[in-house]
Description:
The chain has helices at residues 8-26, 41-57, 72-84, 103-108, 121-129, 137-148, 168-176, and strands spanning 31-37, 60-66, 90-93.
Amino acid sequence: MESRKLSGAVVRDAVFACLARGVETSGRKPGLAVVLVGDDPASCVYVAGKGRACEKLGFHHVTHHLPADTSEGEILRLLAALNDAADIHGILVQIPLPGHIDAARVQAAVAPRKDVDGFHPENLGRLLAGRPGFVPCTPLGIIEMLRHHGVELAGREVAIVGRSVIVGRPLAMLLSLKAELGNATV
């Protein structure tokens, strides 16, 4: 069995170029809102990277950095306002959230049409059913990387380490669908 290292940077650059062209030709400026609760160092770095990517692509973006003791109710009210905001087309709630907040309830409060992380129960259900919808970013990135590098998985057996709702389970669903880069036994 052969193994090889795949470059994600090449795929990222191709996706960025495609997105930048789309923004340029559409004349629309996509808007992204990120909700960050607390000061988890890894989350802060990740959110800053999202902001840089938005700037590079010409997206409007805003980060709502809330204190760790913010109540769940305050977060839900903010999400309701962002769901209704005409200049916001996508919403990301940075995980993990502080322990006093029900992450599932917060993720379900993001409108499915703006849930670009693909964590809303409706979007996860669409993935399970093989229907169009937002898909969690990391599994989708893995699929794009495999496609770009010509990795054929149809009919193959694939082992996925991990079963999180963020990566493992969505990746298993994508790879098991009867689709261009799926139809594998997971």
